[in-house]
Amino acid sequence: MSRSRRHVTIVIQSDGELTSRTLRLPRWVARGALAGAGLLVLALALALITYLPVLAAATRVPGLQREVERLERENAKVGDLVAALDSAERRYDRIRELLGADVVPDPVRFASQLLVAPPVRARAPGVMAQYEAGATAPSHWPLEDAGYVTRGQAGTGAGGDTRQESHPGLDIAVPIGSPVRASGGGMVLQAGEDPEYGRFVLVEHPAGYQTLYGHLSRITVAAQQVVPAGEVVGLTGNTGRSSGPHLHFEVRLDGQPIDPRTIIKEPG
Question: Do 157 and 163 meet the contact criterion of CB atoms below 8 Å apart?
Fold first, then answer.
C-alpha cells in the first residue's frame, strides 16, 4: 500500500471576488520556502548589523574633516604668535642694549619678604668720605647702579594746556632691588604707601629742600628718623602707578618741584 504524500494547501481570496484560488504545494516545497525566507531575513539582519557601523563612521567623516581644518588653522595662528613673540623678544633685547640698563625685574628679589641688604663698599685708607655729615641740601645722585632716565620733569603745556600730564621729577629705569640713597642729609618726614608713588620716602633737608623717592619695593627707614647723605632709604621697585621697575626721584624747593639736574652735578 503506497503512502500518500502530504501537501500544504494555500487558499487565496481576493477582495471583491466570490471565488477563491487554491494553491496546493507539497510539504517539502513549503518547508523549503520557509527556510529560504528565514535565511533571507537572517542575511538582511547581518547586512544591517555590518552596514550600520560603516554608515555611522561615514557620517562622522565630514565632521572630522572640519575639526582637522580647524586645528590646522589654530596651529597656523600659534605659529604666527610664536614668530611675533620671537620678534618682540629680539626687539626688546635690542632696546635693552641701547638703554644700557637691565630693567627686567628679578622675580626672586621682588617676591622675597626679607629685606635685601644694600652693598657695602670699602674705601682705601686716606680717601675722603663720599658724602657729607649732618643735614645738607640734596646734591648727590640717589643711585649707584647704572640707570636710564626714561622720563624727565614736565609741567602743563604752553598756555596752561592741561592735556599734557605733569611730572614733577625724574623716572630712572633700574633693576628691582637697587639701593636708593638719600641725596642729602635730613629727616624723614614720611615713609609709607601712596596710590601714585607706591612705597615712598620723603626727606626734609635744610634751606627749604625736600627729596622724594617713589615706587620702592622696600623701605629701610622710618618717619622722624634722621638720615645722613648717602644713607640707604629703600630699594627700587615697581609699586604704585608704575609701568616698569624704576625710581621716581623728586626734588622740591619751598614745596615746589624743581628739576633735580639743576642742583645735582654728579653723573647718574
Answer: yes
Q: How many CB atoms lie within 10 A of CB 205?
A: 23
Domain assignment present for residue 87? The answer is: no
Phi, psi of 181 (to 5 degrees): -110, 145
For the whole prediction, is pTM greater than 0.90?
no
Cα separation, 121 vs 133, in Å, equals 17
CATH number at residue 242: 2.70.70.10
In a domain, 127, yes or no: no
Q: Is residue 149 part of a domain?
A: yes
Q: How far is CA 56 from CA 29, 46, 51, 53, 64, in A?
A: 40, 16, 9, 5, 13
Q: Is 160 helix (H, G, I), strand (E, B) or coil?
A: helix
In a domain? residue 224: yes
Please count the structural domains in the chain.
Answer: 1
Structural domain that includes position 141:
110-117+134-155+167-262
**CA–CA dist 50, 66 (Å, integer):** 26
Q: Helices in 132-228 by DSSP H: which ranges?
A: none
Per-residue pLDDT in tens (0 to 9) along the chain, 268 residues = 445 567 777 777 777 777 777 777 777 777 777 888 888 888 888 887 887 777 777 777 777 788 888 888 888 888 888 888 888 877 776 766 555 444 455 554 555 555 555 544 444 555 445 788 889 999 898 988 777 787 665 554 334 444 456 778 888 888 888 899 999 999 999 999 999 899 999 999 999 999 999 999 999 999 999 999 999 999 999 898 888 888 999 999 998 999 888 888 765 5
Q: Provide the terminal-to-terminal Cα distance of the chain, rounded to the nearest Å.
A: 137
Inter-residue contact 260 to 134 (CB < 8 Å): no
